[in-house]
Design a protein that fits this description.
Number of strands: 21
Strand content: 25-35%
Number of helices: 9
Strand order of the largest sheet: 6-7-15-11-12
Number of domains: 3
Oligomer: single chain
Bound molecules: flavin-adenine dinucleotide
Radius of gyration: 20 Å
Mean pLDDT: 96
CATH class of the largest domain: Alpha Beta
Helix content: 25-40%
Low-confidence stretches: none
Order of helices and strands: HEEHEEEEEHEHEEHEEEEHEEHEHEEEHE
Length: about 300
């Protein structure tokens, strides 16, 4: 069945902006290429700024345009609709200069820095404090925005300064306060900000001791998560006293399949792209899980993955 033709996209001055700032721009970029789940239709405009300063200027300009502006990290928490999104996407993968060590076990890092590389680099430098994130396939900006966490650690605990795009196109320093982060969310999400970098406060430690902790976290993750398959991590946020994965398992829904999407047989809160899944398969499975969890607990589960689709 052919999808209905998309309406013409507003051209505004997206091409001119990219040319003025020297920013690579792709049009109708398939988002399946940029999400770990591997689903998602085209984004109208896909910008790839190369420095924090250019990214900040681009962000401020794009916010004046007619389309929503969506930052993109590693796409490891996203389900993008098959129809795609009418949006200006700002990718962060080029905002990844090598991490820079500062006095006092601090580290400056770009928003596009892949978290796995950061974890390895910190271990080699003898800096402890991000090893909790072993196995989180994010970029730093997305991890800060989501307050990604595991093994009793979170990015909110590690971050001291978050570099954000200011409304006038400058790079502004936001000093982290106690109210800035909550479970899998942050002031970045609340205020609709764009992160271009961060400064983390770490602690000196023996590299081998850090690596030992990383190995232990890796083993635990491998035993409990379908890391060989394409997914977007946990579908729903856990309740404080209840694991969604365990509940899905109790409800007998592990292995439940719609089209090419399947509830992981290893972890009940993961949906995997088993065989050329469409976003529609994933979304139908999410709905089914949501209804089952609501029926069982009387509580509306909160989505942890983010769905990108036009209203
Ligand atoms: C196998 C697997 C394991 C996972 N394990 C964990 C885990 O243990 N703990 C955990 O918390 N999560 C986990 N996740 C989920 C995911 O990695 C996190 O939510 C992560 O923080 C998403 O980062 P990202 O760079 O991929 O962001 P994306 O998925 O690209 O984007 C997520 C959200 O952040 C926004 N965003 C991205 N970059 C920026 C930026 N620079 N500025 C502002 N907003 C931005 C996007 O617009 C979107 O709203 C896992 C995912 C997978 C696939």
């Amino acid at each position: 069945m052919n999808a209905a033709p998309r309406a013409r996209r507003p051209a505004w001055r997206y091409r001119e902006l990219a040319a003025d700032l020297g920013v690579p721009l792709r049009e109708n970029e398939p988002m399946a290429r940029h999400t770990t789940l591997g689903v998602g239709g085209p984004a109208d405009w896909f910008f790839e700024p190369q420095t924090p300063e250019i990214a900040a200027r681009l962000w401020a300009e794009l916010r004046r345009g007619p389309l929503p502006v969506r930052p993109l990290g590693a796409g490891s928490n996203l389900v993008v609709a098959d129809e795609g999104v009418r949006a200006a996407v700002v990718a962060t993968d080029r905002l990844a200069p090598p991490p820079r060590r500062l006095p006092g076990a601090r580290v400056r890092v770009g928003a596009g820095q892949p978290v796995p590389g950061l974890v390895r680099w910190c271990a080699a430098e003898g800096l402890a404090g991000v090893e909790f994130a072993e196995g989180i396939p994010a970029r730093v900006g997305g991890a800060v925005r989501m307050n990604a966490g595991a093994n009793r650690g979170t990015f909110g605990q590690a971050a001291r300064i978050v570099l954000v795009a200011g409304p006038e196109g400058t790079v502004d320093e936001h000093r982290v306060t106690d109210d800035d982060f909550d479970y899998r969310t942050s002031f970045v999400a609340r205020d609709g900000l764009f992160v271009v970098g961060a400064e983390l406060a770490l602690a000196e430690d023996d590299p081998e001791a850090i690596r030992e902790r990383i190995r232990a976290f890796r083993a635990r993750r491998r035993a409990s998560q379908p890391l060989q398959e394409r997914s977007a991590g946990c579908v729903f946020a856990n309740w404080p006293d209840q694991s969604v994965g365990a509940l899905v398992e109790r409800l007998g829904l592990k292995g439940r399949r719609i089209g090419g999407a399947e509830v992981s047989t290893l972890h009940g809160n993961f949906i995997v792209n088993r065989e050329q899944a469409r976003a529609a398969d994933v979304l139908a499975l999410i709905d089914e899980l949501r209804e089952a969890l609501l029926r069982e607990t009387g509580l509306e589960p909160r989505l942890e993955v983010e769905i990108w689709r036009d209203a």
